[in-house]
Amino acid sequence: MPQIRKNRTWCKTCQDWELFSVEVPADGEKPKPLCDTCKSEYIPYSQDEVPEDKLAEQRERYSKMKFEEFKRTIGAFSAVARVDTGGMFSADGDHDETIKEDDAGQIAIDEAKKAARDAKRLADIELKDKFRGAQRNSPCRCESGLKYKKCCLPIIEKLR
To answer: CA distances (Å), 19 to each of 11, 22, 34, 38, 99, in order?
Structure first.
């Protein structure tokens, strides 16, 4: 059975997140996605054109889609590991239609969060390296004039 691929993305005509189907033309031209609701051709959009509440709604749908993909992947690995393949080839996983959700900027948000976490982790490592081998009663290496135990030791201990 052929699989129908649909993408949910922003329709500038409908001003909402709509499903777009790809109809393959007979003459071999590039297929053009058409909105299932208003039948208009897909027009690229920028996130500035979409209301915040609609973006949040779509990001939630995208997150659910990614979670379902993750569950299917884990299920496939656990099904292969199982000796009993009773549920492995069931019709539960067969779908006539697959909906791919637009990320609505969620990928960029996740990458920015990851970059911030990585930068903080690297800064923490550099700070720990700076104070590696420091003695409690020696002057602090940050050159504050205080002893290490009164100055930077509590901060370093929180990082460990």
So the answer is: 9, 10, 8, 10, 8
Is residue 28 within 8 Å of residue 121, measured between CB atoms? no
**How much is the pTM?**
0.64
Q: Where are the domains of the chain?
A: 4-104, 116-160
pLDDT of residue 137: 92
Q: Minimal CA–CA distance to 93: which of 72, 77, 78?
A: 72
Q: Whole-angstrom distance between the N-terminal and C-terminal Cα of the chain?
A: 56
pLDDT tens, 24-62?
666 667 778 889 999 999 999 999 999 999 999 999 999
Using pLDDT thresholds of 50, 70 and 90, give the confidence band for residue 146.
very high
What's the per-residue H, E or C state across the chain? Answer: CCCEEEEEEEECCCCEEEEEEEECCCCCCCCEEEECCCCCECCCCCHHHCCHHHHHHHHHHHHHHHHHHHHHHHHHHHHHHCCCCCCCCCHHHCCCEEEEECCCCHHHHHHHHHHHHHHHHHHHHHHHHHCCCCCCCCECCCCCCCECCCCCHHHHHHHC
